[in-house]
Each structure stands twice: as C-alpha cells, then as structure tokens.
Design brief:
The chain has helices spanning 5-12, 21-30, 38-50, 69-82, 111-128, 134-149, 185-188, 192-200, 216-228, 247-269, 294-302, 308-315, 341-357, 375-389, 407-416, 427-435, 451-461; strands at residues 59-64, 87-90, 102-104, 107-108, 153-157, 174-177, 208-211, 232-233, 324-326, 332-335, 363-367, 392-395, 421-423, 444-448. It is an alpha/beta fold. Mean pLDDT is 90; it is low at 1-15 and 280-284.
Length: 467
C-alpha cells in the first residue's frame, strides 16, 4: 500500500473537510461507470482544467485495445522499475476495491490516500458543476496523486479506447494499442477496421502510436490515419524475449507490447537507449557505422546486462483475475475476468494447455455470458474445449445486475450444441457442486465471465472483502 503524509497534507489543502473511504466509495458507486461520447472527452478536459491542468505535469502513456490493456501496463510497469523510472499505473476496473485502480511502482494506495485523491477531484467537479463518471474521477485522481508523488510517467488504461473515450482529452506522449477484436459492438461498432482507427485517434498531434494488432491490413490503415493526422507511427512490436511455457502462448504478445512501451518511452520521450529493453543489442554511438567496437564488446562481457528472458523468468506474475491459478486450493481453482469472446478464447486455450501439461482429473467451468458476447461463437468455443479436456459447464447469471444471458437461454443453446451443462442460481451454489465433481489434487474448477464473477469467488467462497 502507498501512503504519504506529505502527499495527504497537500491534497487536504484543497478540501473543506476530511472525507472517509466509505463516503468516497459510496459516491463512486452511484456514478455512471463510464461513457463513450464527445461529452465524456469534454468533461475530462474541464476536470483537468479545474485541477490546474494536472495532465500536462506528467508524461502520460495511454493503453487502449480490446484485451490485455491492464497486463500491458503491468508488464511495462515492471520494466520501468527495472530501469529506475518511477511509474504510476492507472487501471479502468477493479476486482474487490477501487484502490486497485491506482498504484505507484505497483504498490496500491491505502484507503486514506486514495480517498483524499478522489475527494480532490470530487471537489473540483462540484465547483464546476460537472457530473463525471466513476472512470473519469478515478483516472483524474490517479494523475493528481502521481504528480504530487513526483512520478515520472503515468501508464493510463482507457475505458473502451477510442476518439470518444474520456482519456482522449489527455495529452499522451505515447498511445499503445493491443489487438482489436469484437467487443462492445453496440458502442464501438462491428467494423474492426473502423474500431482500430478510432483507437489511433486517441493520440494527439505529435504523439507516438504503437500497436500489437496482428492484422497487417489493419495496421497499414492505422498507419495511414496516424500519419495523416500528424501522429508518429512506430513499427509494430517485435518479440525480444520469451515468457515461460503457457504464459508465452497466452500473454507473449502482451508482454512484448509492455517491452515496446518501455523502450519507446526511453527512446522517443527521454532520448535514451536501453540495451536491456533492446534485447541486449550492443549500443552504437551516434555517428558510428558498422558493428560495435571491440571495446564495446569487452565492456559488455565485463558488465553484462540482465537479459529480458532472465528478467521475466525471475519477475513474471499476473494481475488479480487474469488467469489467476490458485494451485494451493483443493481442488485447484482458476479465475479469470474474461468478459468478451476474444478473452474467453484465450482462457480456454490456457485450460487446454494446463490439461496437456498434466491431464486434469475432472474439470468444471463456471461461467456467465455478458449480453454483448456472440453466444453462438461462445458455445462453439465451449464445445471444442470439452472435446479436448472433458468435463462440464455450469451456467450462472452475471452477479451485480450486469446485463447477461439468462441461464435458461444458455441452457437451451447448450442443448443445441450438445454441451454437458447445468444451471445454477448463484456462484456459491455452482462452486460447491463443482468441487464434488473433480479430483482434489488433480482436478480443476474454473470461473469466468466478468470481474464480478472473480469477486464472487473471493467474497463468497474465501470470505475476502479486499486484497
């Protein structure tokens, strides 16, 4: 947890009276979660102005895309720390508590510091009569805190990510885009090329854009739009290192984007070269041609730089709720916040890889499907998984009133696709039944569908209210 008495006192200068964590959370809970509109961008700009243009007092990197945004920030943050650069991480969602959205050098804020930072934004919104979303408030609170802590660079996750995302108001030095896939079609549209171009338009003139998108055709279109708008286009990421088995297949490209974010910030913003982030390529002095000198090679031998492969072997971990494998539990539990088809397919791939590594003796997947997911494609993916792994699917409604397919509708679909499925009224009921069907030592119970499904595990099964 991050706490700082000097930071708190600075923040409190802007407040009429102390605020409690409960009050702050209660107000965030009553706000709209997020909004994708020109008004959202305008509101963010007004909040920024009311806070003294805090966004201009720190280097900002925006991370957009369909999936992998949070992990790209997480991976990049680790690399910044290795390079001795102070970094703030701002996420667009959380599992159990709002605190999880803001961290410095990967240490989450404590209740008091978080409350005071958010209250500063509330006060500015109240003065200017701005009705902001929870996403806008927490994002601006993160920037306020980062600036007061003297953080060098802020890694900020977008909400939906596009020209009408609230973060488009922020003057980012770099915009990184993960791969683009079908998600929130009712907001962003069904044309993935058009969605990708909206992501590029997050960047303002003079900023840099890099993407992990896999379609060469789409990348070319993104490049054309970037150059037309006076945005600097960087070559797509290249793989410089490899993660350990299973994680490489699931998150290798995301880690590569994290590497590219850290490398480009060093090169394009700070004007420095990092042999570590370049995959230990020997540096060449300005004006020098050809191969590195013998002296450069000798110094590299005498003073070896840690390799990226060695770094990931020693420091690889994932965020909460991202393929979180709890192998100390009996049976083993896997929880993942996948809330769209692309993320679901990645999770199911991971389950197959676990099974290939060590055959599972019993498997149950507890899942709720958000209303925006293509249910037929999801059923095809589940059917393929059960053909390879075996087991059963337990359907639940998404917790917390999230818009989702009803369990009755999912059961009808499952019957059509020949899927071994059952319906349950609650996560706890489904989990308790799943545990009886799999081997304690070598079985697996997986749960997915949204961040609230993950939260249901911690709250109802483990009785944990916050991490």
């Amino acid at each position: 947890m991050i706490t700082s008495s000097s930071t708190v006192s600075k923040i409190e200068q802007h407040l009429d009276k102390p605020v409690s964590y409960g009050d702050v959370v209660a107000r965030l809970e009553t706000a709209i979660v997020s909004e994708y509109s020109a008004q959202a961008v305008e509101r963010m700009a007004r909040i920024d102005a009311a806070l003294g243009y805090v966004s201009k007092k720190i280097d900002i990197v925006l991370v957009a895309g369909t999936n992998g945004k949070s992990l790209a920030i997480h991976f990049a943050g680790k690399l910044f720390r290795e390079e001795g650069i102070s970094v703030g991480e701002c996420y667009s969602s959380h599992i159990l508590s709002y605190n999880e959205r803001i961290s410095v050098n990967q240490h989450v804020l404590n209740n008091k510091t978080f409350s005071e930072a958010v209250a500063t934004v509330f006060a500015a919104c109240d003065r200017e009569k701005i009705i902001a979303t929870a996403f806008e408030i927490t994002t601006m609170a993160a920037l306020v805190f980062f600036v007061q802590e003297g953080v060098s660079v802020a890694l900020v996750e977008t909400s939906l990510g596009g020209c009408f995302d609230a973060t488009a108001a922020l003057p980012a030095k770099l915009v990184a885009i993960t791969r683009v896939a079908q998600d929130h079609k009712d907001v962003l549209g069904q044309d993935l090329d058009a969605v990708a171009l909206q992501m590029v338009e997050l960047a303002q003139r003079g900023a840099w854009v890099v993407s992990a998108e896999q379609s060469k055709h789409r990348l070319q279109k993104m490049k054309e739009v970037a150059l037309k708008n006076g945005i600097n286009w960087a070559m797509p990421l290249r793989k410089t290192s490899q993660l350990p088995y299973l994680f490489e297949q699931l998150y290798g490209k995301t880690a590569s984007l994290g590497e590219r974010i850290a490398q480009m910030y060093q090169e394009k913003v700070l004007g420095k070269l990092s042999p570590f982030l370049m995959g230990n390529t020997l540096s060449i002095k300005q004006g020098q041609r050809g191969r590195p000198t013998l002296e450069a090679k000798r110094q590299a031998t005498l003073n070896p730089v840690k390799s990226l492969k060695m770094f990931w072997t020693e420091h690889l971990d994932l965020l909460r709720g991202r393929f979180e494998l709890l192998d100390k539990e009996k049976p083993t539990v896997l929880i993942d916040n996948a809330d769209n088809l692309d993320a679901l397919n990645n999770l199911l791939l991971g389950i197959r890889l676990l099974h290939y590594q060590r055959p599972l003796k019993g498997f149950v997947l507890i899942i709720g499907l958000a209303a925006h997911v293509d249910v037929d494609e999801a059923m095809k993916a589940l059917r393929y998984l059960l053909r390879k792994v075996g087991g059963a699917v337990f359907f639940i409604d998404l917790p917390g009133g999230e818009a989702s397919f009803s369990v009755s509708a999912l059961m009808k679909k499952a019957e059509t696709f020949g899927i071994n499925a059952r319906a349950f009224l609650s996560f706890k009921e489904a989990f308790d039944e799943a545990k009886t069907l799999v081997d304690e030592r070598h079985g697996l119970v997986a749960a997915t569908g949204s961040a609230r499904v993950v939260a249901s595990y911690w709250r109802t099964v483990r009785d944990i209210k916050r991490f």
